[in-house]
Predict the structure.
Amino acid sequence: MKKLGIALDFTEIEDAEKFLYDIEDKDLIIKVGYSLFVKYGKDITDFVKSRGFELFLDLKLHDIPNTVYNGVKSAVYAGADYLTVHTLGGKEMLEKAVEAKKDSDLKLLGVTVLTSHDNSYVEYIGSKYTIKELTLNLAKTAVDVGIDGIVCSVEEVSFLKENIDKDFIAVTPGIRLEKDSKDDQKRIATPDEAVGKGANILIVGRPIIKAENPNEKIKEIKEKMQI
Ligand code: C5P
């Protein structure tokens, strides 16, 4: 599976709608985070679906198992195709999340250790593992209980795919074409590198939403991904 996802990182629904109206290619996943979702809820999710795109709700659910169960049910109701949950929520929480999406086409994606964290955070939460070990443990547990995919950096994809027996969808942000600005991303990879390392869904935000010609940019990235 190779797909392109756009991070719809706007704060006003008018800007998000204006952007999506102009996008010609419908074979895209649109990632809605909480900047839009908290403010506009079903208005924004319905809009994304009504334009024919796949909907990715990036809400990184992390709570007691029963609350996450209900959250996942609500995401199914909202028509989400993808939803992120936080693997640090634990095995039981992840199991309830998987149970909640039963009989739907929703794909659950697990977030592991955020890229804003370093080893001092891992120490802070009392883990005896390094970030790399912890990331693998969390991802492995998630995939084992039926989480469909893992959000990770391009650098981690091969390591996780080699060490996790079951197949999973690798979702990678931090993608840039050579000529693009890095913005605030510390480590970046090109679309062809990401795909070469086994990434399945590439998430691109600013290089597309701030492009002078987003349609051209999408075409260019997809060409590099050979899709
Ligand atoms: O604009 P840019 O392409 O950097 O956007 C990347 C998207 O992926 C943003 O929505 C960002 O929040 C998300 N993301 C990330 N790094 C992570 C996890 C998520 O950039 N480790």
